[in-house]
Design brief:
The complex is a heterodimer of chains A (156) and B (340). With 156 residues, chain A is an all-alpha fold. Chain A has five helices and no strands. Chain A has a single domain, classed as Four Helix Bundle (Hemerythrin (Met), subunit A) (Up-down Bundle), CATH 1.20.120. Helix content of chain A is 83%, strand content 0%. In chain A, helix 3 packs antiparallel against helix 4 and helix 3 runs parallel beside helix 5. In chain B, helix 5 packs antiparallel against helix 16 and helix 6 packs antiparallel against helix 9. Chain B contains 17 helices and no strands. Chain B is mainly α and 340 residues long.
């Protein structure tokens, strides 16, 4: 296999894995806090679900980015041969963006824990509890946006 | 019990995330200042009981059986400790908070033994039951299914008590033994360590003032002071003859100066020394209220225990006050600041 293709595949694996790790940590934190609240007050289960799910979006974005690169290289069919330069470009954008996703997911998980605590005391403040972790989401979306722009610019 | 390594950064230990979630839900059930005010406004004990029964955490206990106020309050506190112990992953810091009741019980039993009387005031909140305590005192070794953490602490404290010790001496030795453990086990991060050191400071301040009022000799003060506060013991002993009005400005901490100033004023005008206890309790509650804003770590757990202790203390004042038909205003004066 050519080095260009190897680099691109390494990028795909890194963006899916690293983003997924971040989301797993973030969802894990929010889930634990929510489980604590639900064990005392099961009626709050419904309100907790979107809060727990929010840090999971980065893992999903990572998968979308990886899938776009797979599609671009036609890896599920007859894989395209790409020069080393393009291979490095694809690796760079996927690898760097994966860290934005990972770190934002962990921090979003922490903010979600705070929101879970807020909902435990003030269930009527669901809107505010949702908005706070969404602020962190903005940076995951910006990372995804930057990936799209750069991805379009890479000719394969 | 196996030693656990706690995170040195306050509010950062993610191992307690589930526990903090439960604590946030439990905190929502604490009696609010408005509900406390409603209890105060009730004319009779029966009325206060009826109102208390409407609050979620107490409704079940009150409805289940006909129990006296003290039994209900003790049961509530024991439940809070049980709940927090269940999800605190065996933290020594949390266990140490409950251990104070075992030390109280040990004092009760040793005093009863010394006076040849029946034990009076044995608390059910501690780890050891009366039977377990008696067995431990008789055998002097940890055995059976008794809680090892508590039993070992009790035996260590007992080894420091001499046969011929007076009641006062027993009290001092056991307090020193407990607060040494308290400081050691709560010093898992700077926040809890500061809480432990300030608790010791405030106990020492109370001792200092009482020793002055009773005109005890300097040696007795030195013997009674606890080790480990932010204020050195030598500072107290060096100022044993300094009147409280002149001693207070010498303290570097603004909060301690304010507490002593207000307590001194209250003592001069009303002759009431209990104001110092109220102010020191309020200070510690205010300090721990910061734990409410931590989303991770042991701090919210310690904060909840303090909140429940505070709630039970307030209810005790109100219910016993209603029993004696005291006026709401006089009860309001002695009520501690609410954590909720």
């Amino acid at each position: 296999m050519e080095l260009g293709l190897v680099l691109a595949i390494a990028g795909i694996i890194s963006v899916i894995t690293i983003s997924g790790i971040g989301s797993a940590i973030g969802v894990g934190l929010a889930g634990q806090a929510a489980a604590g609240v639900i064990s005392e007050d099961p009626e709050k289960f419904g309100k907790m679900i979107p809060i727990i799910a929010l840090p999971g979006t980065q893992g999903f974005y990572g998968f979308v980015m990886g899938f776009l690169v797979i599609n671009k290289l036609n890896l599920l069919g007859a894989a395209k041969s790409i020069p080393i330069q393009q291979g490095w470009q694809l690796f760079a954008i996927t690898f760097v963006v994966s860290f934005v996703q990972c770190i934002s997911a962990i921090h979003q998980g922490k903010v979600s824990v705070a929101s879970v605590g807020m909902l435990a005391k003030r269930p009527e403040e669901m809107g505010k509890a949702m908005v706070l972790p969404v602020f962190v989401e903005i940076y995951a979306i910006l990372g995804l946006g930057a990936f799209f722009l750069l991805f379009q610019a890479i000719e394969v | 019990m196996k030693e656990r390594k706690e995170s040195p950064r306050p509010g950062s230990d993610t191992r307690y995330t589930y526990a903090v979630g439960r604590i946030k839900a439990l905190e929502a059930r604490l009696i609010s200042p408005a509900e406390m005010e409603r209890l105060l406004e009730e004319e009779t004990l029966a009325g206060a009981f009826r109102a208390l029964g409407e609050f979620s955490d107490y409704a079940e206990t009150i409805a289940a059986e006909k129990k006296g106020p003290e039994e209900i309050l003790e049961e509530q506190l024991a439940r809070a400790y049980d709940a927090v112990s269940e999800f605190s992953l065996g933290s020594n810091a949390i266990q140490t908070l409950r251990l104070k009741y075992d030390f109280h019980n040990l004092k009760v039993l040793l005093k009863a033994r010394l006076l040849g009387a029946e034990p009076d005031g044995f608390s059910k909140i501690g780890f050891l039951s009366l039977e377990e305590f008696n067995r431990l005192l008789a055998e002097g070794t940890v055995g059976g299914e008794v809680d090892r953490f508590a039993a070992e602490a009790i035996l260590t404290a007992l080894s420091e008590v001499d046969d011929g010790d007076s009641l006062e001496r027993i009290e001092v030795v056991l307090d020193k033994s407990y607060y040494r453990l308290f400081l050691n086990n709560l010093s898992v991060n700077p926040f809890l360590e500061e809480y432990a050191r300030r608790t010791i400071d405030l106990i020492n301040l109370r001792t200092f003032w009482r020793v002055q009022l009773m005109d005890w000799p300097e040696e007795r003060l030195a013997e009674s002071l606890l080790h480990g506060g932010t204020i050195q013991k030598a500072f107290f002993t060096a100022n044993v003859a300094t009147p409280i009005a002149d001693f207070s400005p010498k303290l570097t901490d603004d909060a301690y100066r304010r507490i002593l100033r207000e307590a001194k004023n209250a003592y001069q005008t009303k002759g009431d020394l209990s104001v110092l206890d109220k102010l020191t309790d309020d200070f510690l509650v205010e300090f721990l209220r910061r734990a409410k804003y931590y989303c991770f770590g042991l701090e919210p757990l310690v904060g909840y225990i303090a909140a429940k202790e505070n709630e039970v203390m307030q209810l005790r004042v109100i219910l016993h006050g209603k029993e004696k038909a005291l006026l709401a205003d006089s009860l309001r004066e002695v009520l501690r600041r609410s954590y909720a």
